[in-house]
Amino acid sequence: MDQQQPARRRSKSADEISNAYADVADKLARWRRLDRLFAGRYRRRQFEHANGRVLDVACGTGRNFRYLPSSSEVVGIDICAEMLAHARSELDRLELDGAVHQMDAQDLDFPDDSFDVVISSFSTCTFPDPIAALHEMERVCTSDGEILLLEHRRSDAAPLAWLQDWRAESHYDKNGCRLNHEPLETIEQAGLRIENASTAFFGLVTTIDATPR
């Protein structure tokens, strides 16, 4: 039996995703130091040169903010109000020029070509319709801008991949996260131009530099 398929066949609604993350927002905020230890290096490499007006899609508790250039103007959006409360605090703590708004990534309330760079981390696994969310990122990004993504994926190491497949359904039911998804396939399906992509940590982590069509 192909364990990858169940988590791919069903999709939670945006409200269900919001509720799932509302329940763990405080816990995730407390884990910021642990996140820096394991994901900080990848966030820094992917986002440290995101200059200009930057949109952080599904910004969560604001974990990407500290890795952005201090000269950038950051706008964060997330579907979950409880996550955004921590993101606002993070902006204030870092003294960054920016704001956060509650918004559905699949229906961004911004005009076309509003941002120089669009970033997002560990998010395409949770969007009910990731293709729609990627199209929205593309729409609000300037034609000469960048879409920078940091994602998890199904591991290249067979034992880890087996574990991801085995846990995929229950993990999605609990957390709204597709544990064994393939972000590169999703981005190719969305039609974005992939300029560069690399994997790390047994293939579990993928960084993707894309540009609008």
UniProtKB/TrEMBL annotation:
Q: Which GO terms describe its molecular function?
A: S-adenosylmethionine-dependent methyltransferase activity
Q: Which InterPro entries match?
A: Methyltransf_11, Methyltransf_Superfamily, SAM-dependent_MTases_sf
Write the record's keywords in alphabetical order, separated by commas.
Answer: Methyltransferase, Transferase
Q: Which GO terms describe its biological process?
A: methylation
Per UniProt, residues of the Methyltransferase type domain are 55-148
User: Entry's PANTHER family?
Assistant: METHYLTRANSFERASE, METHYLTRANSFERASE DOMAIN-CONTAINING PROTEIN
| Name assigned to this protein | Methyltransferase type 11
Organism encoding this protein: Haloferax profundi
